[in-house]
Amino acid sequence: MIRNLLSRLFFSLLLLLHLNAEKTLHPSIPVIDMQLLESSDTKGRFIQEFTDALHHIGFCAIINTGFDMETLDQGYTHCKSFFKSPKEQKMELFAPHLNGQRGVFFSENAQGNRQVDLKEFLHIGRTKNLWPKWMDLKTPLEKLIVHLDQHSEKLQEALSIFMGQQPDFLANMTSNGACLLRALYYPKTLHPTQFWAAEHTDIDLFTILPKATEKGLQVLDQGEWIDVRVPKNAFIINCGDMLENMSNGYFKSSVHRVVSQPGKERFSIVYFIHPKDEDRLDPLPLCIHMTGKTQRFPNANRLEMLSHRLVEIGLASDELKAFDAQSGYMERIQELVNLGVASEPVKKTYQVWQQMQTKNH
Asked: What's the pTM?
């Protein structure tokens, strides 16, 4: 009898371990095979699956990317060394007059959130970067940007075609655009209630997230927070505000956050895909038609949208604050709100702006 009881307990334990393993390994967001793009017979399937994922949840995982993982590993190795350097050394790259677009920062706050995130980050662009003198960060990160640019081109083509544009529509914006690589360090915390990064959306067209060193990323889907789990070496893609604006809300700029893991630290590298400052992000006619035939997002260019977000999260210089105040961007948002046609994200931007006005006065 004791032997039978022990046998049952043993098999129950095996079953529990199996279920936990399945829960860990099973993807929690749509997974799309990039090899589908290699054939004209399956290219349409990739475009449909990719745009469906960005429409419904705003997140997906891309597998079989062909990406050189050694390049990514080298990037992580050097970024870890940078963040573990003494703060006085890292401060050489602190340049607040650059509006957070280059150099190192020791946190920021999410849109509408007064509490700062628990993180450090370094911003690198294609040109005009700030590099440390005590280590070679330039070589591995510039190489990584080249590879990520190549990875993003096919995704941009898929989105362009779906929105009724020429295949190079987005590429013409981003090939000389202000794409930005962000390396992040999330330090150890003591409590699971702390957030490494509070809930937010990204301001770009879309974001590429290669593997991180620790879990914690969550996406909000139908009112519930979902742990983002993807296959090994998959790249996570999430839609940003600029693509949401251009698609009149057809593509969902996903609300996401990073939840701290007690006693652990986390490193990640993300690549924000941006157009040029002057590029128009007005809702496209086909997208307006697909979303109820009413424009629910404002006409704006990249600089107007970015400037306002940098003001919201506390990274804007006085010069950029002045530009934001006179750009007319908020007046266009207010008009949509007054007409009763503004989308929920546009309403939130307006509400946060009102709160900031009240605080400043």
From this structure: 0.88
